[in-house]
Write a structure and sequence with these properties.
Structural class: alpha/beta
Number of helices: 16
CATH architecture of the largest domain: Alpha-Beta Barrel
Radius of gyration: 27 Å
Strand content: 15-25%
Helix content: 25-40%
Largest sheet: 8 strands, parallel
Number of domains: 2
Low-confidence stretches: 1-6
CATH class of the largest domain: Alpha Beta
Number of strands: 21
Strand order of the largest sheet: 9-19-18-16-15-12-11-10
CATH topology of the largest domain: TIM Barrel
Distance between the termini: 49 Å
Mean pLDDT: 87
Shape: globular
Length: 548
């Protein structure tokens, strides 16, 4: 039985059949315990009762007030139909129901909710990445299989070098000359090529952030896998800045400069340098637009760390207000951040995927302090992007990273400036395949965000707009909420364990991919002759082999 809602009372109200998710409720199993209504993050359901007349053949024709007419009272669940309390399909009601009496079901009809999402004159914002877009990366396959002339490696027995370099790599002659003269040599870091992407301490809950840090620390300290994680804008807890774990963290500075007062004040007390400094100029899901942490998530702790009042929206400007052009930005920001840490820490910019990415890269090549470049493609997720930005703006990461890599090849500097890619990694669960495909296209490493949330913390969001309320702080799993009642559902120790399992499995799959290629001592960066695709247009665009 499907719970029926009340009659619509305003133009923005809908019937339950117009919603993307319908609550299926079985009264014969329901114990009316109220657990489902208590756990629902958006209060989409409520306990209710109704009086029902029982009509039988013997009752036909009887008077209305005849006492022999029978009635019964039904107790159960009612689904709300107003837009603010629509069901998001997270399934938390199913998780807590002791009798399996309730579950959300996708609406098989055409849901009309998208015509009613714009409330109070504001465009639709949501968490999670865009919906229903095929991944080009999933179509790329590895075609170079070593046989007799180049013996294949045994993925289970051979030793593999799976790490990459973050930082500018000097040509051998220049490196030897500088070292002989005692001159400055650009800092580098040996890191694992799969990086936990920029997700801020305000976007993620304290328990989620702590779980990620615990997992990264275990991978480095115990398993000797040099995994690093980026903070995103907003800084990080002060105790982290003064801990030995800072060396596993990439600190991000963005146009809002949130959290940087704490970071600058902590520099004299830092036990070690951070892994790198990331300067964010743009992000893939909303290129040319600033970030936004909605007031729902600006708790007392977040407000203190960011130096702002509690409970206010925190938008980042779309550009750094103190800079005039990308040329000035590259020179001023990168050199300033390098000086802050005595030129000991790699500094690189993060830009959104765009046709002007090559122009930014060419400026970086001329800057001796630039340690790389991160390109965030259009399939990346973000906490509170406008729907129109996620669906209609940006540049796919595969072609963008390929263009930049081939530009470096034309200059003979492909081994000098590392390129990192982000945006849509593991969109359909194929994280190792997607990452290695980008590495063979020219990336030195990849950043992943939503995949690690789904794999390590059980994120319920999907491409079909299931859940996806990261932006308003109502995450039912407590991953992206600043409400203690929600984020206490998440156990940091379990998150850390899953992080470790995810990265060890990625290492195994990397070996399974590299072994047939005959590569074991270095990542196959730019080894495009080893991949192919059955899309002729994509093959021509990416300059790789067309197969059919």
């Amino acid at each position: 039985m499907v719970a029926v809602s009340s009659i619509p009372s305003s133009p923005s109200d809908l019937t339950y059949a117009d919603l993307p998710w319908l609550i299926e409720h079985r009264e014969d199993r329901c114990a009316v315990c109220g657990k489902c209504t208590a756990v629902c993050p958006v209060q989409a359901i409520q306990l209710t009762y109704r009086r029902q007349r029982i009509v039988g053949l013997g009752m036909l024709g009887k008077a209305k007030n005849d006492p022999s007419v029978n009635y019964r009272t039904l107790y159960g669940i009612k689904q709300k139909t107003d837009v603010a309390h629509r069901c998001i399909g997270c399934g938390m009601c199913s998780m807590v129901c002791p009798n399996e009496a309730i579950r959300p079901m996708p609406n098989p009809n055409d849901p009309r909710l998208r015509f009613h999402m714009n409330q109070a004159g504001d465009a639709w914002k949501r968490g999670g990445r865009r919906n229903d877009r095929d991944s080009l990366l999933d179509k790329i396959i590895f075609t170079r299989i070593s046989m007799l002339t180049d013996p294949a490696l045994d993925a289970g027995r051979h030793e593999f070098f799976l790490n990459t370099i973050l930082g500018r790599i000097l040509p051998p002659e220049e490196f030897l000359q500088r070292r002989a003269k005692g001159e400055w040599i650009p800092p580098t870091r040996e890191i694992f090529p799969f990086i936990i992407g920029s997700m801020s301490f305000g976007a993620l809950s304290p328990n989620m952030w702590l779980g990620l840090l615990q997992g990264v620390a275990y991978l480095n300290e115990v398993l000797k896998i040099p995994v690093v994680m980026a903070t995103g804008e907003g800084g990080c807890p002060p105790w982290v800045l003064k801990s030995p774990f800072l060396k596993y963290i990439i600190l991000q500075i963005a146009s809002g400069y949130f959290g940087w007062d704490e970071i600058i004040r902590a520099i004299p007390e830092m036990q070690c340098d951070p892994a790198a400094i990331e300067i964010k100029y743009g992000q893939g899901a909303k290129p040319g637009d600033g970030g936004l942490l909605m007031w729902f998530k600006v708790s007392k702790l977040i407000a203190r760390l960011r130096g702002v009042p509690e409970g206010v929206d925190l938008p980042s400007p779309p550009v750094h207000q103190t800079l005039y052009s990308i040329e000035e930005s590259v020179m001023k920001m990168i050199q300033t951040m390098s000086m802050a840490w005595g030129f000991r820490v790699p500094v690189y910019p993060k830009i959104s995927g765009t046709t002007s990415a090559k122009a930014v890269l060419n400026n970086l090549v001329r800057n001796p302090y630039a340690s790389g470049m991160l390109i965030d493609g259009m399939d990346g997720g973000t906490g509170a992007a406008y729907n129109v930005s996620m669906d209609s703006m940006g540049h796919p990461i595969a072609s963008n990273i390929r263009e930049c890599y081939l530009d470096l090849v034309a200059q003979g500097r492909e081994n000098e400036i590392p390129l990192f890619a982000a945006g849509g990694m593991g969109k359909n669960g194929n994280i190792a395949q997607n990452g290695m495909a980008l590495i063979l296209l020219g990336a030195s490493g990849v950043h992943m965000g939503k995949y690690i949330m789904q794999a390590a913390a059980g994120c319920l969001g999907s491409e079909r707009n299931r859940c996806n309320v990261c932006n308003i702080g109502l995450c039912p799993k407590g991953i992206t909420s600043q409400n203690p009642k929600l984020y206490r559902r998440l156990d940091p120790d379990q998150v850390a364990q899953r992080v470790v399992e995810v990265f060890t499995s990625i290492r195994t799959e990397m070996k399974k991919i590299m072994a047939p290629l005959g590569r074991s001592q270095s990542l196959p960066i730019g080894m495009s002759d080893a991949i192919g695709i059955n899309d002729a247009a994509a093959a021509e665009r990416l300059k790789i082999r067309y197969i059919c």
